[in-house]
Amino acid sequence: MTGASSGIGRELARELGRRGARLAIAARRGELLEALAEELTAGGAQRPSVHIADLAERGAAARLAAEVQDSLGTVDVLVNNAGGGVGGSQWRVGDRNEGRDAFELNFWSPLALTSALVPGMLERGGGAVVNVTSLAQIGTWPGMGHYSATKAALGVATEALRLELIDSGVQVLEVIPGPVDTAIQGESRLVPGFQAATRRMPMGDAAELARLVVRALERGQPRVVYPRLLGLGYRYPGITRRATIRMARRHVDPSFRSDERVVRSGSFGDEEARQARAEWERTREALARR
Fold first, then answer.
1. Cα–Cα separations (whole angstroms), residue 53 to 4, 7, 59, 63, 200
2. How confident is the model over 163-193, as pLDDT tens digits?
3. In whole angstroms, what is the distance from residue 261 CA to residue 165 CA?
4. Active site positions, annotated
5. What is the pTM of this model?
6. Tens digit of pLDDT for each residue in 50-105?
7. Any bridge partners for residue 170, and if so which?
8. Among 33, 15, 17, which residue's Cα sits nearest to residue 25?
9. Burial class (CB in 10 A: 0-12, 13-18, 19+), 37
10. What CA–CA distance (Å, rounded) separates 130 from 175?
11. Domain 7-182+201-237 bears CATH identifier 3.30.420.10
């Protein structure tokens, strides 16, 4: 499982660990992975193997697959959850390294892991691939074009993989989150007009989403859209896009076009993004203590 150090990935590791799965967890922050491994072990789960990997680097996914296979022997379920992005207008980001790294992390690395692990699943006649995409694939926003494009690309690749694996015994599950209460919400507030436009959207819970993902795996479902109330928007993307145009006109100041910032997001992102993530987490922790 990639991206296991926080958010959806951490909650999914907890849920699978409680159900007796033997896990390999991967992310860039080794100390958080070790803490998660200790937590799972203390709760009675098997200790997962821990793998530090930066999947924004080309070749890292192939190395990770080899390490995991050396550790576990076989992989029955691949969870491509790691993600990040870059904020900025299309003409500022262009084909800069920040944009290319986002595609490496969100698109090419999942495909590399799929390439390495699915042949073994086919030989054994069973397994599952879980790709975490985003509702941003059908409803993007100014300043989020590159991120949304990576998720749209992974969504199409996931659908093609499902077709390629029909009746093979290998399940393909796409997890399509909208807003979920994780640190990425802090970064999203940096995007012009985004907070105002989404203030009425339901906010999901990462632990609940993890339970829904495991249930979907058990039932052989093809996708999970969460929060559930946003499923209609996924089903009718034309309506979603028209609504997004109206909100962008209402909430995005045209001065955005002169903003020269390019902000790499994620736990290893630029300082502005890291501070926004930390502030969100501090706020949620304070609310939880009340």
1. 11, 17, 10, 9, 36
2. 999 999 999 999 999 999 998 888 888 898 9
3. 42
4. 147
5. 0.94
6. 999 999 999 999 999 999 999 999 999 999 999 999 999 999 999 999 999 999 99
7. 127
8. 33
9. buried
10. 7
11. no
